[in-house]
Design brief:
Number of strands: 17
Number of helices: 13
Distance between the termini: 44 Å
Helix content: 25-40%
Shape: globular
Order of helices and strands: EHEEHEHEHEHEHHHHEHEEEEHEEHEEHE
Oligomer: single chain
Strand content: 25-35%
Largest sheet: 7 strands, mixed
Radius of gyration: 22 Å
Structural class: alpha/beta
Bound molecules: L-homoserine
């Protein structure tokens, strides 16, 4: 173990960067200090004050500094983050990142870059804020017993759903509040349209099953078109609606994955996951279900995860991506049957969606819904047609329902 303080170059001083500065200052045993901070605009007022001499607008002041051995990247621009992170790795610096959009899009290149340069990239903060889900999947669940990882991976949308569902608040007001509290992305459509959950799911799947699936190949549906009628339907059935991401084995050699709102009944762990909390259920043969719960968004929870990754480097911890080398890794498939609730008005859903079986229909002067069974591949193919404001889609779980 190296007892010298790790010298950090910090990229980004928004909610998470400022919180990391605070957390490092608070942690008595943090063998790390922030040596420079790179920002786009030094003159921008910030809630947390730091020594002005730390700030620079020139990324090379951090990348060229031989004293800086570790880069923390928490900026909100995925492409700029990719350039910083890949360059830092090429120069042999450790990188700790919370940038799920960048990591999910560039994961295969990032794995290759780490192998080639020997430099390490850690990113537990990218998925589920303070919950150590990546390191656990990487280290503990290192066997083929894993059947499913499923959960609430986005704090902002969960906060909005909790406020709307349990407290009767307006959707727009709840979204504004999620932004004020520092939960939402700078583009909150990433949160509410499910893309943020999608990015986290891609990262989780890499560490759960050793397989990378690109964002375009995964069906993703968010909560932006939820309506009072959907909430009423769920309440009548004593369900809650949660935005759920899941990766599930559907056979020994095949798995599927998607992000969708889901009707969740009281018997499920995620039913009680409210506000900005996240909850991840890990299911396996022999041990059935395990559950991880914690704050999934917000500066301080995310900073605590960054600090944990920084400290892990004192022991030279790195991801080995062991599962990517396993023989007989499962293959991704969208050839699976799902059961969905689709509420609509003007959009001609019966003409768009080729249901295999219709289980229930409802018609009123204002809206209709269909509950039916449909292939995930058919949903994915027709995804652009399901974005109209009069349409809302909600999953009715079929996998592993006999195992709860
Ligand atoms: N916007 C993200 C969320 C932040 O709401 O979960 C944490 O990744």
């Amino acid at each position: 173990m190296n007892n010298d303080k790790i010298q950090i170059g910090l990229f980004g001083f928004g909610t998470v960067g400022q919180s990391l500065y605070t957390v490092i200052g608070r942690a008595r045993n943090a063998h790390a200090e922030i040596r420079r901070i790179a920002v786009r605009d030094k003159s921008k007022p910030r809630a947390v004050e730091a020594d002005p001499a730390l700030f620079t607008e020139n990324p090379d002041d951090l990348l060229d500094d031989p004293e800086i051995s570790l880069i923390v990247e928490v900026i909100d621009n995925a492409e700029a983050a990719w350039h910083i992170v890949s360059e830092a790795l090429r120069r042999g610096k450790t990188v700790v990142s919370g940038n799920k959009a960048m990591i999910a899009r560039h994961l295969p290149e990032l794995v290759e870059l780490q192998r080639r340069t020997g430099a390490a990239l850690l990113y537990d903060a990218s998925s589920c804020g303070s919950i150590p889900v990546i390191r656990n999947l990487e280290e503990y669940y290192d066997n083929d017993l894993l059947l499913e990882v499923k959960g609430i991976l986005n704090g902002s949308s969960n906060y909005i759903l909790s406020r709307v569902f349990d407290h009767g608040e307006e959707y727009a007001a709840a979204l504004r509040r999620a932004q004020e509290l520092g939960f939402a992305e700078s583009d909150p459509s990433n949160d509410i349209e499910g893309r943020d959950s999608l990015y986290k799911l891609i990262i989780i799947t890499m560490h759960a099953l050793g397989v990378y699936v690109a964002p375009e190949e995964i069906f993703t549906y968010g909560i932006s078109t939820i309506h009072e009628s959907d909430i009423r339907y769920a309440r009548e059935k004593r369900f809650k609606i949660k935005l759920v991401a899941q990766v599930a084995k559907v056979a020994d050699d095949r798995f599927t994955m998607f992000v969708m709102p889901e009707f969740v009944d009281k018997s499920k762990y995620i039913y009680s996951v409210d506000d900005e909390y996240n909850g991840v259920v890990i299911r396996g043969e022999c041990y059935d279900r395990q559950f991880m719960f914690g704050k999934g968004a917000g500066g301080l929870p995310t900073a605590s995860s960054l600090l944990s990754d920084i400290m892990a480097r004192r022991y030279d911890y790195r991801y080995e991506y062991k599962k990517t080398r396993f023989r007989g890794r499962p293959e991704y498939t969208t050839d699976v049957l799902l059961r969905v609730y689709v509420r609509y008005a003007d959009t001609d859903i019966p003409a768009i969606l080729p249901f295999r079986e219709i289980r229930e229909t409802y018609t009123s002067p204002d809206y209709r819904y269909i509950i039916g069974d449909i292939r995930l591949a058919d949903l994915l193919e027709r995804r652009p047609l399901l974005s109209a404001p009069d349409v809302f889609l909600c999953n009715i779980p079929l996998f592993f329902t006999d195992k709860d």
